[in-house]
Automatic annotation (TrEMBL):
The keyword Disulfide bond applies. GO terms for cellular component: cytosol. Keywords: Disulfide bond, FAD, Flavoprotein, NAD, NADP, Nucleotide-binding, Oxidoreductase, Redox-active center. It holds the Pfam family Pyr_redox_dim. NAD(+) binds at G175, G176, G177, Y178, I179, A180, N181, E182, G263. It is an enzyme of class 1 (oxidoreductase). This is Glutathione reductase. Coiled coil: none annotated. Belongs to the class-I pyridine nucleotide-disulfide oxidoreductase family. GO terms for biological process: cell redox homeostasis; cellular response to oxidative stress; glutathione metabolic process. FAD binds at K52, D304. It comes from Sphingopyxis macrogoltabida. Binds 1 FAD per subunit.
Length: 448
């Protein structure tokens, strides 16, 4: 008999934690997981899944308008926030149930409570129960970062935005990253007046400059207002329930809601990590090696809590690699090169590999190819919005080292194209591929 209650105890039942739990259990490990919020984590409960459903809902605003040019006699339509909100939350409930069923079917014990570390191989639940485990995996994800300033308590984050009682007529969104731009597009399509306030002068840092400039141009054309170099000073709640946002270098803005989307931080506070010797970096992330092991040999971490790449599929890969390596006898290391990403803005962005600036700094001699065009659907609909595809090529080897796209269905197209970049294919390989016509994706093999 083992001296421990479990072979593995996982703190956090998000994407990485659930994957690690069920794979470890499938390898024969005795596994328990503690989740203080809801099974499914950020992605399923308050992140990419409900967000993408709102994105789908927002797209109907343009689709219904464009349908008239395609012969459909569409009556004037009214958007009902309550219906979409409740349907999205019901879908979240359904998915949470499926995640729970997955853990149950793999005989993973689930404690729906908070767990903290009290030793390298021991945790304490909120009710005082102490549990030992040979190994402990931290998979508590990230949490929205809210800067401290007077009145910040009047703002909401991406955690609360899915539960709004009513659709705000005026929304101020703080931040310039993917969350800020995605919700700006969503609320704008729903008819809200949207203002993005950024303390810096750039949106979507890390994405290719031409692509992010194109999104800025299109967003402004759609009516989204941008305030740059305008840090928050305070938020004042007025007698009528509205909010007045005071900014540096900018006039005050009155809004019905303020959404703080200034990034996410590793969710490590209060877990007892430092007390048992787990090293954290300056941002509070758990330091791990390539095997996901922390400075304490019995404690591991995967997902956003390590602040490597904050993407759900990466957390899933890390959870799988951990379980296969430790319990399956299949040592696995996650490869972080050429990880594709998307921004579900309006229109969306897809990207993989190096940006033009990164490629010039690293490779020196590069070639770039672009296609700047209107999608066929937009032409007939009378919509002037243009898509932009960009390919970065290593001039010395002809290898495609980056693909960046903005336009309808860009993430769907990029996923398949990312395989080619990951495989190290060349521009000649793209050129040798026959185009699939008529499609937007064919532009990738017709770049000159």
């Amino acid at each position: 008999m083992s001296e421990f209650d479990y072979d593995l105890f996982v703190i956090g039942a998000g994407s990485g934690g659930v994957r690690a739990s069920r794979i470890a259990a499938s390898h024969g490990a005795r596994v328990a997981v503690a989740e203080e919020h809801r099974v499914g984590g950020t992605c399923v409960i308050r992140g990419c899944v409900p967000k993408k459903l709102l994105v789908y809902g927002a797209h109907f605003a343009e689709d219904i308008h464009d349908a008239r040019k395609f012969g459909w006699e569409v009556a004037d339509c009214k958007f009902n926030w309550d219906v979409l909100r409740d349907n999205v939350l019901a879908e979240v409930d359904r998915l949470e149930g499926l995640y729970g069923q997955t853990l149950d079917s793999h005989k993973v014990t689930v404690f729906k409570t908070r767990a903290t570390l009290i030793g390298p191989q021991k945790v304490r639940l909120a009710d005082g129960q102490e549990i030992s485990a040979e190994r402990i995996l931290i998979a508590t994800g990230g949490w929205p970062f809210v800067p401290e300033f007077p009145g910040s308590e009047h703002a909401i984050t991406s955690n609360e935005v899915f539960h709004l009682d009513k659709l705000p007529k005026r929304v101020v969104i703080a931040g310039g990253g993917y969350i800020a731009n995605e919700f700006a597009g969503i609320f704008n399509e729903f008819g809200s007046k949207v203002t993005i306030v950024n303390r810096g002068d750039t949106i979507l840092r890390g994405y290719d400059e031409q692509i992010r400039d194109r999104l800025l141009q299109i967003s402004m054309t759609k009516g989204i207002d941008f305030k740059f170099n305008a840090p928050f000073q305070s938020i004042e709640k007025n007698d009528d329930g509205t909010l007045t946002v005071h900014l540096e270098n900018c006039d005050a803005i009155t809004a019905d809601a303020v959404l703080i989307a200034t990034g996410r931080t590793p969710n490590t506070k209060g877990l007892g990590l430092e007390d048992v010797g787990v090293e954290l970096d300056a941002h509070g992330a758990i330091k791990v090696d390539e095997t996901n092991q922390s400075s304490v040999p019995s404690i591991y971490a995967v997902g956003d809590v390590t602040n490597r790449i904050q993407l759900t599929p990466v957390a899933i890969r890390e959870g799988q690699a951990f379980a296969d390596s430790v319990f399956g006898g299949k040592p696995t290391v996650v490869d972080y090169t050429n990880v594709p990403s998307a921004v579900f803005s309006h229109p969306p962005i897809g990207a993989v590999g190096m940006t033009e600036a990164e490629a010039r700094n690293k490779l020196g001699s590069i070639r770039t190819y672009t296609s700047d065009f209107r999608a066929m659907k937009n032409v007939l609909a009378g919509r002037n919005e243009r898509a932009l595809y960009k390919m970065i090529v290593n001039a010395a080897t002809d290898q495609v080292v980056g693909l960046h796209m903005i336009g309808p269905d860009a993430p769907e197209i990029l996923q398949a194209a990312a395989i080619a970049v990951k495989a190290g294919l060349t521009k000649a390989d793209f050129d040798a591929t026959v185009a699939l016509h008529p499609s937007m994706a064919e532009e990738l093999v017709l770049l000159k």
